[in-house]
Design goal:
Structural class: alpha/beta
CATH class of the largest domain: Alpha Beta
CATH topology of the largest domain: Rossmann fold
Catalytic activity: (1S,2R)-1-C-(indol-3-yl)glycerol 3-phosphate + L-serine = D-glyceraldehyde 3-phosphate + L-tryptophan + H2O
Shape: globular
Cofactor: pyridoxal 5'-phosphate
Bound molecules: pyridoxal-5'-phosphate
Number of strands: 14
Family: Belongs to the TrpB family.
Pathway: Amino-acid biosynthesis; L-tryptophan biosynthesis; L-tryptophan from chorismate: step 5/5
GO cellular component, one term: cytoplasm
Length: about 450
């Protein structure tokens, strides 16, 4: 195995030593059916045309590639943002979901289930389910339901059933376990719509191919708008779907560095981190062999990150392979870096980013110039918008924003000039809420 094989699946479903299918026998048939359905769909021009039309007319693609001039200046780099935050539902997740929902339809499965961390994948799945008239159940850790209440409501509005998962750390890992359990039971009429480039074969491949649209677009956009190719492509890595989609078209362009940024929580080695590739070991988790955060006894360790979307102790197998082959570089940004990236993106660019890509921005601010060289040209995937994270950011960062008080996040109530009493103040908060669409007004943390 050499670095030049990095884009190749060496054996079916394997990326080097990583990948495969580690599932109960009861799922083997469903995975075989999915392999066939995907091969069929890929060979069917009608499928491609349907997907393209949906991406364009429904999803809002292509998303722009935007030269972030003020952020560039502060970083000492030339930073281009691939604006997945502007796609329908506010992140890259819909790219994958629309494709898999079409597959579910082709397989004659009337029901989809999904796991979700920050809720973005749940929202995207509920959206596609509404679009195609599929029944939809979404599993979400109870802790994440609390952190991402707005997305719970969005899923419900879209007609999905949201099941809070109370087991384990009550986060993404536990939601995946629960979704797997449902799938084993209901496999005949149900497609498990996995939300990242992980899980048993063929999911990592299908998700990569569906997310590849990100780099197909930005390769052309960069050539037209900036000229040539960038020095580096940077994306945050949770399970790794926006990153693998951002890397896919560049893997065979050796002069372009591929940099994945994981969430280091309170720091690599702190015991409170989600930096899987930096800290993990080879192991099997959720149906495939990859790199996993484990303790000394080989037990899966709870991941920690300020961002629910990166709070996962595993990583997709192709990233494990890109890391081990050296084609990709995987580094980490802390909660603090992410909050700095969040704040700077707001203030310098007028873009409220999701906390996940804020990790990549935070890394760029802190290490970009030293790692990449002054003036390096960088494409950073802005994987989603930050409406969902506003409440969490205000709580965690404790910034003394007037708006935070209006939202009730410090437990106090700010009475706007000319109004008296808490009722009026609450109404004002609701107005701000409806306007900004942040949905955080109703329930501030106690
Ligand atoms: C879900 C999510 C992520 C993390 O998932 P990947 O599969 O690693 O892309 C990153 N950014 C945003 C905005 C998300 O919603």
């Amino acid at each position: 195995m050499t670095a030049t094989d990095a884009s190749t699946e060496l054996r079916e479903g394997y990326f080097g030593a990583f990948g495969g299918q580690f599932v109960p026998e009861s799922l083997s048939d469903a995975l075989a059916q999915l392999v066939d359905a995907w091969a069929d769909a890929e060979a069917d021009a009608a499928f491609g045309a349907q997907l393209d039309a949906l991406r364009r007319d429904y999803g809002g693609r292509p998303t722009p590639l935007y030269h972030a001039a003020r952020l560039s200046e502060v970083c000492g780099l030339e930073v281009w943002l691939k604006r997945e935050d502007l796609a329908h539902t506010g992140s890259h997740k819909l790219n994958n979901v629309v494709g898999q929902a079409l597959l579910a339809q082709r397989m004659g499965k009337p029901r989809v289930i999904a796991e979700t961390g920050a809720g973005q994948h749940g929202v995207a799945t509920a959206t596609a389910a509404a679009l195609f008239g599929l029944r939809c159940t979404v599993y979400m850790g109870a802790e994440d339901c609390r952190r991402q209440r707005l997305n719970v409501v969005r899923m419900q509005l879209l007609g999905a059933e949201v099941v809070p998962v109370e087991s384990g750390t009550r986060t993404l890992k536990d939601a995946i376990n629960e979704a797997m359990r449902d799938w084993v039971t209901n496999v005949d009429d149900t497609h498990y719509l996995i939300g990242s480039a992980m899980g048993p074969h063929p999911f990592p491949t299908i998700v990569r191919e569906l997310q590849k649209v990100i780099s197909v677009e930005d390769k052309e956009q960069f050539a037209t708008q900036a000229g040539g190719v960038p020095d580096a492509v940077i994306a945050c890595v949770g399970g790794g779907s926006n990153a693998i989609g951002s890397f896919a078209e560049w893997i065979d362009v050796p002069e372009v560095r591929l940099i994945g940024i994981e969430a280091a929580g309170e720091g690599v080695g702190s015991g409170r981190s989600a930096a899987t590739i930096s800290e993990g070991r080879e192991a099997v988790l959720h149906g495939s062999r990859s790199i996993v955060l484990v303790d000394d006894d080989g037990q899966v360790r709870p991941a920690h990150s300020v961002s629910a979307g990166l709070d996962y102790p595993g990583v997709g197998p192709e990233h494990a392979w890109l890391a081990s082959s050296g084609r990709g570089t995987y580094l980490a940004a802390t909660d603090e870096d992410a909050l700095e990236g969040f704040r700077r993106t707001c203030e310098l660019e007028g873009i409220i980013p999701a906390l996940e890509p804020a990790h990549a921005v935070g890394w760029l601010l802190r290490h970009g110039r030293a790692e990449l060289g002054e003036g390096a040209r960088v494409v950073l995937t802005m994987s989603g918008r930050g409406d969902k994270d506003v409440d969490e950011v205000v709580e965690v960062a404790g910034w003394d924003l007037g708006v935070a008080r209006a939202f009730g996040n410090d437990g106090g109530v700010r009475v706007p000039a000319g109004q008296a009493g808490t009722e009026a103040a609450t109404e004002t908060a609701t107005e701000v809420d409806a306007d900004g669409g942040t949905g955080v007004g109703a329930e501030g943390p106690a």
